[in-house]
Amino acid sequence: MIRIGVIGLPQSGKSALCQALQNLAGETMQFVEVHHPDELHGNAYDVVLQVVDATRLEESLMLTPHIIDEDQKIVLAIGRYDLLLKTDHSLNLPKLEQLIGVPTCRVSVCLNDGLPNCLSLLREVAARPASTAHPIYHLRDQGDEDTYRAYVHGILTETLTHAKDDKHQTRLERIDKVLTSPWLGFPIMMAILYFVFWCTFTLGAYPQAWIEGGVDGLSAWLWTLMEPSWWSSLLIDGVLQGVGAVLAFLPNIIILFFFISLMEDSGYMAREAFIMDTIMHRVGLHGRSFIPMLMGFGCNVPAIMAARDIQNPKDRVLTMLMVPFMSCSARLPVYMLFVDTFFERHKALVMISLYAIGICLSVLFAIIMKRTKWFRQDNDDTVNELPEFRIPKARNTAAHIWERVADYLQKICTVILWASIIIWALEYFPTQDLNDLEHSYLASIGQFVSPLMEPLGFDWKMSVCLLTGLPAKEAIVSTLAILYGGDISAAGFTPLTAFSFMLFVLLYFPCVATIATLRREAGKQWAWFTVFHSLFLAWFISFVVYQIGSLL
């Protein structure tokens, strides 16, 4: 059996090409997806099939020297070539194969084109003896990113024919030009984000109110059926109120990820990275680092894993350390609860400010870290090619939304459920009276950490809520519902303490899963570094905001 490592698959095409080739090859070949060149090291692949996006040639081909440098036999499969032709560009494939020294073919799963030829080429290359007579080998001694980029750029200069003018641009291409404009791109991006948050609050308010009303009605009905006891209190005050408080924000989650999915599937996420490229360069990074940061708005765990695609190891680790500053969806229910209660007239602006503060602090963090011995370097990489701007498909959008909703519901049924039960038990015992919280186990824990949190304007209950957010930030909402009976407006919070509280939630590390992923991807030392620096930064920023706000 011939073992093929497949690298360079687009997110939307993952497994589709592998499956099509596997179906044609049968049991004679085995196709294995590879996500990063480092995974090739030490793996016994007979051939590596690199999928090259014809609409992003320079970026795709930058991967080729790294694969060859791993002493791997390689075949290039040029995908989406029909889209390249539609832009009035053309590629001289025979000359490309000659100059790069790698067997090359065209493939298209959608058009069912070139797959048999690709299989024949893979078999032929697998049967050849390994060779070191490759043009890339003379670059080994100076094989840095600049050398590789010059190598790839020279090949494309010889083989890629550009369109002569812009008069044949399609409507989407003209729209794309406006969206990536150096003058209009950033204001348009901010306007889009404002609209997304406005819709999230405005449209989500109605189903959110229905769910909250349903939870309250069910609680009242259950109290009429059950005698007062620890069991009824656990079921209603603990499980139902705790889980129901988090479940109420499910419509907002669906709306937000609907828009995020549209931006992702349409290619606008890549445009945001292009727009931010100049800013990222001033930090010492590049636009590609912004993609994992954008993914961090959904969940920090896959965002950290997405940073694997950054080839420079120092930039890769630094990007992973910046991701926890991004407001993941787990923080969203906390924001919505406080924004709905204390910032009725400025919901979207307050939400954008929280996201903007996270981004600004991550940039400041990167600037500081770039001046340390661990990350100091010169980096001239840039984002100079963009994927095709396309119309999102309803099936992909629905799949992305369901993936997030399923993850949210899974957390509700596991982490949030157990957190609600534990918080109720600590609140109920040893007095067995929820009206006597001051003598409960929970109060003892809260009062232990309270002296540290009082300068931030937090009482012991708020401090306990932050502790329960360590496994998952959604647990903060369920804890607030249990401790305050679902009404935080009369619980000692003010707009100032509410904003200080949200800043603390924003800045201390997202969850235990994020730290575990960071430990696996970047190393134990950087995982612990994130725990300690995020806790200190959260305390310090909240302290400064609360103390200055109190003076004003």
Q: How would you describe the overall organization of this protein?
A:
This protein has 25 helices and seven strands. The termini are far apart. The protein has 552 residues and is mainly alpha-helical. It folds into two domains: 2-161, P-loop containing nucleotide triphosphate hydrolases (Rossmann fold); 187-379 and 396-551, no CATH class. The model is unreliable at 380-384 (pLDDT under 50). Helix 9 (185-225) runs antiparallel to helix 11 and helix 21 runs antiparallel to helix 22. The strands form two sheets. It has a five-stranded parallel beta sheet, sandwiched between helices. Helix 1 (16-25) links the parallel strand 1 and strand 2.
Query: Could you tell me the number of beta strands?
Result: 7
Report how far apart the termini are.
Answer: 74 Å
How many DSSP helices? 25
The average pLDDT score comes to 84
Question: Judging from the principal axes of the Cα atoms, what is the shape?
Answer: elongated
| Major sheet | 5 strands, parallel
How are strands sequenced across the largest beta sheet?
A: 2-1-3-4-6
In the predicted model, the low-confidence regions spanning at least 5 consecutive residues are 380-384
User: How does the helix and strand content classify structurally?
Assistant: mainly alpha
How many distinct domains? 2
Q: What percentage of the residues does DSSP assign to strands (E)?
A: 5-15%
